Amino acid sequence: MRGRNRYKGRFYREPIRKRLPISYEKKFLKEKIASFFRPRSTKIAVASVGGICVLACVLVFFLAPLWSVPASAPQKSSEETSSQHEIVPTAATPEPTPVTDAKIIVLDAGHGGVQPGCVAGEILEKNITLEVTLQLESKLEEMGFSVVLTRDSDEDIELDERADIANRAEAECFVSLHCNWYEEDSSVSGLECYYFQAEESKRLAALIAESTDSESIHTRDIKEENFQVLRETKMPATLIEMGFMTNPEELELLTSDDYQEKLVSAIANGIQDMMEGAQPSMEEQE
Ligand SMILES: [Zn+2]
Q1: Distances (CA, A) of 82 to 75, 77, 94, 137
Q2: At the top level of CATH, which class does the domain 96-275 belong to?
Q3: Domain spans, the chain
Q4: pLDDT tens by residue, 71-126
């Protein structure tokens, strides 16, 4: 081991000696490079370039904020600045107020899905009630009400769910639309508004009946009936039997666009009267 070390020691000593002249050469080279930078003109040039750089940095540091202020100021005032700025304006947000102020009306299209209601040949009650309900929805929305529907398509909704929808919506009033059926006498006709117990429900029924009557729609007296949707709703509620499907003339009217439009207008006006606190004048009819 030692012999090898000694040998190795000798072996290594040689290249070290050989490197010495190389380092001298390097020193010589360094000398030359240093002499290249030695002239005064080069030193001055280097110093002046450095000085300019430092000055530029200082100028940028101090002037950058001055430039950025006038650049951002017109952006805030200009109206054409797009999406990024439109999200921000929390200070000017009076827009949602009319939406929240809109009174909620729940419309309930009777039957649906596997429950056709009254059936007169190919005419199904569930289709008439949905047609009128959808038109009434548009009409009431035009008047500024917020409308919630228990159904907007041909689907079967349980009666308790219909009342729940109205209760959850905290609606101002609930209007259920149906068509009547009286097999014993096909001559019987006319629209009927039902209410249950509550005075406010009676007022709603009476105001709608008064409105349909004034629109020359054959209107019968308002009636009290323990219908589930009237019993379980917590707001003024009425159920409108729009006409008798057992009466051939009225059946034809119920499916006609003109008569449906007339019904929609009259019912909407009655609801509006209710919302404006009107009192019915024919309340005592019976
Ligand atoms: Zn019905």
Answers
A1: 10, 12, 20, 35
A2: alpha beta
A3: 2-71, 96-275
A4: 444 443 333 333 334 444 445 555 544 455 899 999 999 999 999 999 999 999 99
